Amino acid sequence: MLELVIVAGARPNFVKIAPLIHKLLSEDKINYTLVHTGQHYDPLMNDVFFEDLAIPKPSYHLGITGGSQNQQTSEIILRFEEFLKDHPAKAVVVVGDVNSTMACSIVAKKLHKDLIHIEAGLRSYDRNMPEEINRLLTDSISDYFFTTSLEANQNLLREGVDSNRIQFVGNIMIDTLVSKLPYSQKPDIYRTYGLESGNYYLLTLHRTDNVDNADALLDILRTVSASIGDRRCVFPVHPRTEKMLRGTTVSTEIKNIEFIEPLRYLEFLYLQKNAKAVMTDSGGIQEETTFLKVPCITYRTTTERPETIHTGSNELATNLEQLAHYISILENGTWKDSQIPELWDGKTAERILQCLYNMYSI
């Protein structure tokens, strides 16, 4: 029996590992334990969330709450070490690039466990991004690398990783999207604001550079508002962003942006697939919109997912002028054609399972 520990630290991590758990639930040769570090407090991380994903709730919760990134990392290391010492496992599976990914990777290798990184090899080449540091450190000590793209393979090869340890399996987040798309749910706000398919924008913002400075955040919102004209923009406000907006009058000042609370996964999926376009600073949303062939503008200086630009429906806006420019292209109806990248087909978890069988001679 192969014993695995799977680590997740934030809501997007669970979306990514859900397809693998679905496969493992019917396995009799692989046993898994799901650990939630608690790194990101999310009020929607409740029973309904796990029902939406159709997976059991985590077996263990490390109870990490708040603090700076370094405080979080140190607490995760200490608590995950306590957990792993008491729970035998051959390998630890980490996903993505959050602090939990990097912290639990260090513990796994210190305790001589195999380390498997899902979404390995992504690079923005911007070391001011905390996620980039997490990616680099995790990949520097991983034993096996499951990648979403051939670009990620090339990144790892340039860093000296043996090709035998790299498996191009595709994008596991798309597995969840494919399986849940038929069950997406129209949220109440669709009726509240009289939204029409293809006639509204969807906006998400949560990254430090965009939301930790009130003036920068307000500049983004004003640019969006001025550029979309009479169309509506729906803005589910991340808790981190909401803190910065407190005390401002922006929600009353701007009439064509609807500030709403975060949505359930299936509701947000409905908004995404029916939007005229999505504006975001999220990595995962770049991928989801590419699969859905919904135009996406990513407001960041870099992206670790270049395939969403050169193959998919995404464009990178590095400043407010570019943001306004890309919105004008959308308004003119001249957005580029796009394709779905290779192996973004909803079968990544199957390929990962087969890799595990081969790697451990099961």
Second rung of CATH, namely the architecture of the largest domain: 3-Layer(aba) Sandwich
The spatial strand order of the largest sheet comes to: 3-2-1-4-5-6-7
Share of β-strand residues? 15-25%
Q: How many E strands?
A: 13
Radius of gyration: 20 Å
Residue stretches low in confidence (pLDDT < 50, at least 5 long) are none
CATH superfamily of the largest domain: Glycogen Phosphorylase B
Describe the protein in words:
With 362 residues, the chain is of the alpha/beta class. The protein has 2 domains: 2-170 and 344-359, Rossmann fold (3-Layer(aba) Sandwich); 182-332, Rossmann fold, CATH 3.40.50. Helices cover 46% and strands 16% of the residues. The protein has helices at residues 11-24, 47-53, 69-86, 99-110, 130-141, 150-158, 172-180, 188-192, 208-211, 214-228, 239-245, 250-253, 265-274, 283-292, 307-310, 320-332, 348-359, and strands spanning 2-8, 30-36, 60-61, 91-95, 114-118, 144-147, 166-168, 200-203, 232-236, 257-260, 277-280, 296-299, 314-317. The strands form 2 sheets. Strands 3-2-1-4-5-6-7 form a 7-stranded parallel beta sheet, sandwiched between helices. Strands 10-9-8-11-12-13 form a 6-stranded parallel beta sheet, with helices on both faces. β11, α14 and β12 form a beta-alpha-beta unit. α1 (11-24) crosses α17 (348-359), α3 packs across α4 and α4 (99-110) packs parallel to α5 (130-141). It starts with a strand and ends with a helix. The model has no long low-confidence stretch (mean pLDDT 94).
